Amino acid sequence: MDQFKLGMQVGEIKAWCEAAKNEAKEMSLSAPFKPEEYETILPYMKEYAERNDISFYHERVLILTDLFGDMDLSGIWVFIIYKSPETLERYLKLKKDKVKLLEAGSYEGEAKRDIAVRFGRLLGYSDPMINERWN
Predict the structure, then answer these.
(1) pLDDT surpassing 90 at residue 72
(2) Which terminal Cβ of the chain has fewer Cβ within 10 Å, N or C?
(3) What's the chain's average pLDDT?
(4) CA neighbours within 13 Å on the CB side: how many for 25?
(5) How is domain 3-134 classified at the CATH fold level?
(6) Residue 89, SS3 per DSSP
(7) Whole-angstrom Cα distance, residue 41 to residue 39?
(8) What order do you get walking across the sheet with 78-82 strand by strand?
């Protein structure tokens, strides 16, 4: 990873850790990174998480919803940055709920929208912003 890209990654990590510490957002996502960049970025993630007394989760398969359907998530990883353990629990439950719906063949209509809205709210999107992105 070149120094410019690393600097941008670290800057985002610092900002999202401060946002989590100050409860400006319930949950944030680091900039996406390739698996081979993980070992380079991880020490900075650990440092700023510890410095801000927040937590992070290494997510290898980020949930994909129609709210953010324009994102290509194939082969990328992110850190989920949060303060409350309940936030991570809600995210992981959301992923499980989506899998159950997919397995049951009912991931459509309102169920699909519900998953998208719940993810948007975890990321701090307001209902008007969610509605705008949905349309």
Answers:
(1) no
(2) C
(3) 93
(4) 20
(5) PG1857-like (3.30.2190)
(6) helix
(7) 6
(8) 27-29, 78-82, 55-59
